Amino acid sequence: DSVRKRRGRAKVLAELLVTIGTDEQGVPMPAKVIFVRDRNSRKWLALLSTDTILTAEEIIKLIGRRWDIELFLKMAKSFLRLAKEFQSRSFDSLVAQATLVCCRYIMLELVKRSNAGPRTLGNLFHAVCDELRQISFTEALALLLRLREETLNGAVGFCKEQVQQMTERFIETLTRDFRERLLFSAPGKA
Questions:
Q1: What is the pTM of this model?
Q2: Measured between alpha carbons, how far is 87 from 98 in angstroms, rounded to an integer?
Q3: With the C-alpha atoms ordered 117, 122, 125, 126, is the resulting torsion angle positive or negative?
Q4: How far is CA 42 from CA 6, 36, 106, 111, 163, in A?
C-alpha cells in the first residue's frame, strides 16, 4: 500500500494500516500507524495503535493522556521522591506518602501554570480581559456584606438597625488597615 499524505497543515500527516506479526494462533495482528507533526520542530512522529477501529484523532488523544501520566510518574519518582523519601510496609503510610507527593505535584503545577503566561486563541484572551474587571478581595468582601445586609433586611425578625449593627460589629473586629480599605471600597461609603 502507498501512504497518502493529507493536504495542508493538518495535525495528522498520514495514517497507514499495517500488520505487525502474528499472535499465538498465527493470526496476523493489524495495527494503525499515524504520522503527526511534532509541535516543537518541523519533524514528524509515528504513533502505533493495535486498536484499528479508533480514528486517528482518538488515538492521538489517548496517547497524549498516556504520555501525561508517564510524565507525572517520572516527576513523582525522580523529583518528588515518591519511592525514596519514605519506605514502609503499612498501607496507610504508603497512601499518606503518595498523597503528599500528589499535593506537591499539584502545587508545582499551579505555580507553573500561573507563571507560564496566558494561553490565547488569537486576540480572544485580550478581548475577554478587557471585558472582565478583576475586583480586589476587599471589594468582593464589601459586596458580600452589602448583599448580606439586603438579604437580612428581607428576613423576618431583623430590622435595618439590627442588621447595620451586626455589620458594624463585624467590621470592628477587622484590623485597622483592612477596615479602612473595606470602608473605602464599599459602594456608597467613601
A1: 0.50
A2: 11
A3: positive
A4: 16, 11, 32, 30, 66
